[in-house]
Design brief:
Receptor-associated Protein; elongated; mainly alpha; 322 residues; 78% helix
């Protein structure tokens, strides 16, 4: 029995280039881009003696650079995710990383497989772009998840600050000093913008739209309504913090309830692909007798369509909005 290692080599090459992205990112930026630091990045820049105006300009540039580059070919699929992840790589650097990973993938595929040059080139480009997209998407999910967990504590911190007599701008500034990244630096930018004359509610709305977070939209709406009609902002925010915590608790509960269905869907979606890879590895000539028949390609397309439909419907079934 002849064993083909090509499918396993493709998977290993993709995993390798994915790890290479993370290695280059950590080498280039180190702890400056870590989301686990107790002191947020804005405060670190200020402690180094960088003027407040330059810190604000730098952070705003990093937050908006990706969406301004949507017109670049191949980058439109990354822009939104890269903005939410606040990737320190510039759009040009990300595109260069795609090209570099494609070259590395092509070299590895040329050395380890005997596929045709055209096939290797297509696979290399797919691996280079796919590795960057997968990496950026994971970074964005992790950062948004951390912000969702930090937001209730940040709102409660503002409530305590308002109750001791601080204005709302000072309450936002306290959050910027006391809360770690990623939310600390985001609120720090809002505090700096307010110091230079921008309306806080407008800054909160911009943050909510940039992060596409419903809880931040609630916060922006609550502050806007209070500014227009008056009222006790501390009580409003206290109620909002309870709502956010309740939503977060319900979301975790729904996630736990749907975990079994989610993993079942992933298994049902992935098993046919794994079975196909295993067959090609263990017995590469398994489909030789039917490969040249007229119905082979249509049947393969029908099976692929059913697999795609299965993935879509299983995702819809477990995607419960909270």
């Amino acid at each position: 029995m002849e064993i083909s290692a090509a499918p396993l080599i493709y998977v290993l090459v993709f995993v390798g280039v994915l790890l290479l992205v993370e290695g280059v990112y950590l080498t280039a930026f180190g702890k400056s881009i870590s989301l686990n630091n107790r002191v947020n990045r804005r405060l670190e820049l200020l402690e180094k003696g960088t003027p407040r105006e330059q810190v604000l300009e730098q952070l705003r540039k990093e937050m908006s650079q990706h969406m301004k580059s949507q017109g670049i070919p191949l980058y439109a699929i990354l822009a939104d995710k890269a903005q939410k992840a606040n990737i320190a790589f510039s759009p040009r650097q990300l595109i260069m990383m795609m090209l570099l990973l494609s070259v590395v993938s092509f070299a590895l595929l040329s050395a380890l497989t005997e596929a045709a040059a055209g096939v290797r080139a297509l696979l290399a480009v797919a691996m280079g772009v796919g590795a960057i997209y997968t990496w950026v998407n994971n970074k964005a999910k992790k950062r948004l998840s951390m912000m969702e967990e930090q937001l209730p504590e940040a709102v409660e911190l503002m409530v305590r600050s308002l109750r001791v007599g601080h204005p709302f701008s000072s309450a936002v500034g306290i959050v910027a000093k006391e809360v770690a990244d990623p939310l600390g630096s985001e609120f720090g930018v809002i505090a700096d913008e307010a110091a230079y004359g921008r309306d806080i509610s407008e800054s909160l709305r911009a943050l909510a739209e940039r992060m596409d977070m419903q809880d931040l939209r609630f916060l922006a709406v609550a502050v806007t309504i209070q500014q227009q009609s008056g009222g006790n902002l501390a009580e409003i925010l206290e109620g909002l913090s309870r709502v956010i915590r309740a939503r977060f608790k319900l979301f975790r509960r729904v996630k736990a309830i749907t975990a079994e269905a989610k993993w079942s869907g992933m298994f049902l979606s992935g098993f046919p692909i794994l079975a196909l890879v295993a067959i090609n590895v263990l017995q590469p000539d398994y489909y030789d007798e039917v490969r040249d028949t007229a119905l082979f390609i249509p049947a393969a397309l029908v099976v692929a369509a059913f697999l795609v439909a299965n993935v879509i419907f299983m995702k819809i079934m477990v995607n419960i909005k909270v």
